[in-house]
Design a protein that fits this description.
The complex is a heterodimer of chains A (about 110) and B (about 110).
Chain A: E1 4-7, E2 10-14, E3 19-25, E4 31-37, E5 44-48, E6 52-56, E7 59-64, E8 69-74, E9 83-90, E10 97-99, E11 103-108
Parallel strand pairs in A: 2-11
Antiparallel strand pairs in A: 1-3, 3-8, 4-5, 4-9, 6-7, 7-8, 9-10, 9-11
Chain B: E1 5-7, E2 10-13, E3 19-24, E4 31-38, E5 42-50, E6 53-56, E7 65-71, E8 74-79, E9 88-95, E10 104-105, E11 109-113
Parallel strand pairs in B: 2-11
Antiparallel strand pairs in B: 1-3, 3-8, 4-5, 4-9, 5-6, 7-8, 9-10, 9-11
């Protein structure tokens, strides 16, 4: 919803280029997750990262609570990275997630 | 660990019929969430259970939608008198209890109302 702003809406890269996806929140957060989804596919959790920086292979997530933002960095993109990346934040005392609208990433050869 | 299981994967109903969707959370997880995904609205929260008790159903359309969790191993989402606008992918997720625990999603049930 409006509480989670994700950018860019879409991104086209050449294989090997890097990508930076952003998520901004209008309120303070308790939890933060990044998900990956192929068309017609399941939501796959990429990172659970409520604060700080986490890295997994070519993917790095950084969440800065004070600035109310989180980012997902993909280095040396590959064709198989293509899909939609969604960020989601939990704001309340329980863990209901509010999702951004997603970034559609296309990596071309 | 089989992950979150949802059945059926696809369901087609006629307008006015009833649809029941099933979710089996990850064993040991005490929180179960239902979300709905459409192209227009994106992903939106429907309802939430903790230790089988309903905690928050603020996202549920009030008149035709209901959810239950009769035991710790499954939850159901029932839609009465389905309408074309109910067509969506319905997603179930589970997590440990707490404000900062990761949610794991099932593959979803694609509901098509003709």
């Amino acid at each position: 919803g409006q509480q989670v702003q994700q950018s860019p809406t879409s991104l086209v890269l050449q294989e090997g280029e890097n990508a930076e996806l952003q998520c901004n929140f209008s309120t303070s957060l308790n939890s933060m997750q990044w998900f990956y989804q192929r068309p017609g596919g399941s939501l796959v959790s990429v990172f659970y990262n409520p604060s700080g920086t986490k890295q997994s292979g070519r993917l790095t997530s950084t969440t800065v609570i004070k600035e109310r933002r989180s980012s997902l960095h993909i280095s040396s993109s590959q064709i198989t990275d293509s899909g939609t990346y969604l960020c989601a934040m939990g704001m309340s005392n329980y863990n209901v997630l509010y999702f951004g609208s997603g970034t559609k990433l296309t990596v071309e050869p | 660990n089989a992950g979150v299981i949802q059945t059926p994967r696809h369901k087609v109903t006629g307008k006015g019929q009833e649809a029941t969707l099933w979710c089996e959370p990850i064993s040991g997880h005490s929180a179960v969430f239902w979300y709905r995904q459409t192209i227009v609205q994106g992903l939106e929260f429907l309802t939430y259970f903790r230790n089988q008790a309903p905690i928050d159903d603020s996202g549920m359309p009030k008149e035709r939608f209901s959810a239950q969790m009769p035991n710790q191993s499954h939850s159901t989402l029932k839609i009465q008198s389905t309408q074309p606008q109910d067509s969506a992918v319905y997603l179930c997720a589970s997590s440990d209890w707490g404000p900062s625990y990761e949610q794991y999603f099932g593959p979803g049930t694609r509901l098509t109302v003709l």
